[in-house]
């Protein structure tokens, strides 16, 4: 077979998945940041195929929409009735037209751990041996439920027999059919027409292709892999969790081997598309999700959840919950910081304890250290926002912006009523409510001057513990005054 012969991958995803007991179709359930189907397609794309077909049926609107989002170039073939894997592949093949030649590879939409490299190696093995058909197999401890690979005395493959059709002797075979198959397209199109449904399940079995090829004395072979989990499918949520943990274990290990310190791999969850720089440390209880990227020499965690975030080199992100935001190089967040979408912390900037930020840009070295809400803001380089400050960005109808100039000092417990502008180098007083723009270098105060009414508690709240405490303090104060008066 020439190198130029096209490769077509057919992904089977029409089955019911009823054991998930879910409104969501099985293959759409997420694992490590991708749907199960997304993983299968990722493996399929790894062999640089000329065509990719996904066979859909159950809950097909959901699956179709998802496919259009994640891989719009996939051909969608509809299998109206789930008559078996052989029928599903025939439907997929038909969608590519009668003229299709080359190699067809079949994978399952519910097998998430299949590595692109494995599929590539399988395809290379199939082509280099010039086989009509190859099947990917593995030996497992518990082969129950799988099709068994029956071999002749000389080791050559003679058939795959389904559990329900197997003899007692065949059931003792521990080499299983992964379901992943490669075959010659022209041959397969014809052979699939010969597949019947006279078996224990009344289904058109894809696996019948193997005995058909053997009967025709065509070259057939098995490609056995050691890493059986790559062939495992998800049928229940119990398996979903187990496979997700295994996927995570592999991802975390890959990062550790690339120079990332992961203090507790068991409580660290990293999605498959995340990138992390060298000598970054991930502390326990941390989830790094979606398309998050983390630079080198950063510290993330403990107990942080970062989704689609960009974390710069040397940043420190402690007990932080953030999405679609940027933390610049050398910047710090946390503990207990909430970064909502559109937030950017400048280099060496800070969002400190109990701070919520949304759609706000902090310049280089700008700081919001304590107990604040900064929404729809622009905070200039080197500016500092005092503890307990609120950007009142919402007037009940519109969201408005608050601009704080470079090196400005907003004092504690301010309310900035947007839209409002505090100029470069301006100061505000403690407890101010800033409704009007502040010129560069000005001081704005808005709290009234303090008025103290002496003896108010004794007159208005007589006999209360407060009044008694005040009376005690005042009498001590009086005697102190006496002493001071007599000595001065
Ligand atoms: C199949 C294999 C079995 C193998 C096992 C590996 C056959 C006959 N048996 O069994 O040898 O060990 O997979 O997991 O092939 N599907 C469709 N349309 C259908 C039927 C199935 O799209 O009409 C899809 C399912 O969505 C699923 C895949 O094909 O992704 C496998 O179907 P399933 O019913 O799970 O096959 P098994 O009985 O497990
Ligand atoms: Ca199955």
Automatic annotation (TrEMBL):
Q: Which GO BP terms sit in this record?
A: cell morphogenesis; cell wall organization; lipid A biosynthetic process; peptidoglycan biosynthetic process; regulation of cell shape; UDP-N-acetylglucosamine biosynthetic process
Which Enzyme Commission numbers does its entry carry? Answer: 2.7.7.23, 2.3.1.157
Q: Which cofactor does it need?
A: Mg(2+)
UniProt-annotated stretches for the region Disordered: 456-488
- Magnesium found in the keyword field: yes
Query: Which segments does the entry list as coiled coil?
Result: none
Which residue intervals define the domain MobA-like NTP transferase in the entry? 9-139
Q: Region (Pyrophosphorylase) spans which residues?
A: 1-237
Short name of one Pfam family: Hexapep
UniProt-listed InterPro entries: Bifunctional_GlmU (IPR005882), GlmU-like (IPR050065), GlmU_C_LbH (IPR038009), Hexapep (IPR001451), MobA-like_NTP_Trfase (IPR025877), Nucleotide-diphossugar_trans (IPR029044), Trimer_LpxA-like_sf (IPR011004)
Q: Which reaction does it catalyse?
A: alpha-D-glucosamine 1-phosphate + acetyl-CoA = N-acetyl-alpha-D-glucosamine 1-phosphate + CoA + H(+); N-acetyl-alpha-D-glucosamine 1-phosphate + UTP + H(+) = UDP-N-acetyl-alpha-D-glucosamine + diphosphate
Q: Please state the protein's primary subcellular location.
A: cytoplasm
How cofactor binds (record note)?
Answer: Binds 1 Mg(2+) ion per subunit.
What subunit structure does UniProt give?
Answer: Homotrimer.
The family classification in the record reads: In the N-terminal section; belongs to the N-acetylglucosamine-1-phosphate uridyltransferase family. In the C-terminal section; belongs to the transferase hexapeptide repeat family.
Q: What is this protein called?
A: Bifunctional protein GlmU
Q: Which gene encodes it?
A: glmU
């Amino acid at each position: 077979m020439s190198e130029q012969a096209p490769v077509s991958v057919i992904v089977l995803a029409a089955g019911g998945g009823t054991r998930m007991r879910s409104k969501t179709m099985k293959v759409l359930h997420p694992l490590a940041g991708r749907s199960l189907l997304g993983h299968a397609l990722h493996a399929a794309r790894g062999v640089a195929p000329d065509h990719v077909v996904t066979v859909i049926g159950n809950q097909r609107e959901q699956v179709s929409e998802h496919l259009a989002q994640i891989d719009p170039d996939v051909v969608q073939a509809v299998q109206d009735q789930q008559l078996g894997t052989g029928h599903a592949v025939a439907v997929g093949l038909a969608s590519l037209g009668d003229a299709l030649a080359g190699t067809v590879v079949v994978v399952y939409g519910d097998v998430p751990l299949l590595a692109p490299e494995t599929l590539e190696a399988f395809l290379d093995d199939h082509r280099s041996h010039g086989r009509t058909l190859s099947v990917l197999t593995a030996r497992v401890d518990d082969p129950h439920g799988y099709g068994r690979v029956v071999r002749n005395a000389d080791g050559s493959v003679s058939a795959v027999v389904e559990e329900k059709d197997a003899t007692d002797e065949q059931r003792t075979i521990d080499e299983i059919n992964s379901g992943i198959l490669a075959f010659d397209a022209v041959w397969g199109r014809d052979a699939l027409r010969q597949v019947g449904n006279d078996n224990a399940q009344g289904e058109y079995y894809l696996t019948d292709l193997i005995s058909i090829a053997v009967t025709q004395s065509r070259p057939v072979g098995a490609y056995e892999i050691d890493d059986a989990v790559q062939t495992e499918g998800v049928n229940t949520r119990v398996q979903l969790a187990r496979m997700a943990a295994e996927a995570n274990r592999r991802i975390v290990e890959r990062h550790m081997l690339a120079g990332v310190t992961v203090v507790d791999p068991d409580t660290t969850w990293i999605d498959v598309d995340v990138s992390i720089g060298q000598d970054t440390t991930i502390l326990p209880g941390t989830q790094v999700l979606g398309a998050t990227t983390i630079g080198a020499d950063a510290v993330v965690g403990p107990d942080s959840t970062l989704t689609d975030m960009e974390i710069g080199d040397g940043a420190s992100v402690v007990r932080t919950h953030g999405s679609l935001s940027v933390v610049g190089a050398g910047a710090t967040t946390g503990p207990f910081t909430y970064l909502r979408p559109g937030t950017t912390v400048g280099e060496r900037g800070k969002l400190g304890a109990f701070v919520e930020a949304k759609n706000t840009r902090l310049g280089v070295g700008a700081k919001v250290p304590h107990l604040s809400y900064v929404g729809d803001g622009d905070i200039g380089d080197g500016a500092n926002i005092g503890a307990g400050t609120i950007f009142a960005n919402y007037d009940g109808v519109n969201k408005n912006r608050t601009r704080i100039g470079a090196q400005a000092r907003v004092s504690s417990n301010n309310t900035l009523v947007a839209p409002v502008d505090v100029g470069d180098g301006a100061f505000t007083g403690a407890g101010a409510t800033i409704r009007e723009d502040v010129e560069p270098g000005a001081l704005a105060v808005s709290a009234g001057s303090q008025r103290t009414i002496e003896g108010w508690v004794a007159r208005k709240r007589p006999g209360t513990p407060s009044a008694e405490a005040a009376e005690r303090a005042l009498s001590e104060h009086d005697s102190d005054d006496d002493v001071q008066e007599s000595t001065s």
